[in-house]
Hints:
The structure is a homodimer.
Chain A: E1 2-6, E2 10-16, E3 25-27, E4 30-36, H1 38-48, E5 53-59, E6 69-70, E7 76-82, E8 88-92, H2 100-113, E9 119-123, H3 134-140, E10 146-149, H4 152-159, E11 165-166, H5 170-177, E12 194-197, E13 203-207, E14 210-215, H6 227-240, H7 245-260, H8 270-279, E15 281-284
Parallel strand pairs in A: 1-5, 1-9, 2-7, 5-6, 9-10, 10-11
Antiparallel strand pairs in A: 2-4, 7-8, 12-13, 13-14, 14-15
Amino acid sequence: VILTVTLNAALDITYQVDTHQPGHTHRVRTVHTRPGGKGVNVADVLTQLGEPVHATGLAGPDVDLPDFVPITEPTRRTTTILTPDGTATLFNEPGPHVTAGEWATFLDHYDSLAPHAHVVVLSGSLPPGIPTDAYTQLINRTTTPVILDTDGDPLRHGLTAQPALIKPNQHELQRLLGRTPRLPHDCHELGVPVAATLGPAGAVLSTPDGCWTARPPRPVTGNPTGAGDAFTAALARGLTDRKPWPDILTDAVALSAAAVAAPHAGAYNPTLYRELTRLVDVKEG
Amino acid sequence: VILTVTLNAALDITYQVDTHQPGHTHRVRTVHTRPGGKGVNVADVLTQLGEPVHATGLAGPDVDLPDFVPITEPTRRTTTILTPDGTATLFNEPGPHVTAGEWATFLDHYDSLAPHAHVVVLSGSLPPGIPTDAYTQLINRTTTPVILDTDGDPLRHGLTAQPALIKPNQHELQRLLGRTPRLPHDCHELGVPVAATLGPAGAVLSTPDGCWTARPPRPVTGNPTGAGDAFTAALARGLTDRKPWPDILTDAVALSAAAVAAPHAGAYNPTLYRELTRLVDVKEG
């Protein structure tokens, strides 16, 4: 089983509108609401893939996330405005404040789950009240391989605990290195395997065993929210199945592109996924 | 006491953001949430004015609106995106479905409240499931003077029941007449007193006793959401106190402009209100 951890869960709200014009009033055509947050998206994609997965984290009283440790403050909302031409605009609320007691309760819960997992996925930002080295603590508390997908200080701290793999996008990698990354060269200096996503251009995987680049055969239009989480889901399944690195990368690029074609985070287009799996171009070096 | 009725209540969410760019991801700086809907805004303004008011309507389980008849489906959200330059962008969800039983329960509740009110205010759109002639029914069930503030078919039907006053804005008046309104001339043909708001240009009041135009001394910048409801609150207080028509109009224009200067619907800037009350220019004809 794969364990996903979402410390900053969300209530994802998606609005379909006819146009999006700042300064105007818009009638929302359709409303879609789901429990979200990056680890929840990863778990939803793994479930759609038929992969055994267990999702945990911290969640407020207003979202239905069983087996999450409850916190008092309400879960943050993330609102996505979608127009017919595929433009996605996001508004992300700041996270709720988590108390020291709630964090301690979560650590106990995590200790009961992590030893039973083949792979642990730690995803997303940390809500206020959680220590900046939270991911370091979680990685150090288990011998299970950990995939870390976060940003800024939580990523910088987490690296010191040697996760099995990190999954930055270009912006996160740039913030981590303090300069525009030269890929794949710059990944080596991070000291851990790195799967870096490059948006529509695909991804780069840098490991002690070698380095690979993969790109989808064509651009896919749709809602890119959650595409990175589909990518992480493929990495988690690949590590669980101990697949060769280039196969893991190919699968992750195909699944991520197929997620862009699905209207909401946590889902992918299965027809497109099957098609792209055969067409993704992977190169060593 | 003034009774306000809100059949399509809302959960008003206001986001302060640094910029608003379609296609981008935005970090929300501050989140403000309040129970809303036009009649709730009217009641909140009347409360701030120190006027006895009773607010009722229909509301889902997710908003705290005491003395509203409960419905099963969740209340619609209205999200306002505010930027530092004062640009307000609104996204309004469609309303929840109301069952025939919920509507019948509301009618009984209304019958118990309306006879005790000096003025009834019927505000806003009708959620799905409510008959289009709902406001006609409510006006016909009471001898209390009714102010009607709605749009489209509910307004067209409601007019046939002869409300004491209607409060369209320019767009609502244009839809009602089927052409660009010539003011005040066109109001006469509607057969009921009309207080038409003209945005920053003020308002026109057309009654069998005469016709008046009033404008604020200068434009006020801020959040115009809820300014029309502050205008209606002043009308309701004016009818309750049996003030002369030009005084009611002056007060409504001043209160409405002072509401633009308040950051959220249902509130006004009291200092600005006192100042504008002396400066609003009212003319007969």
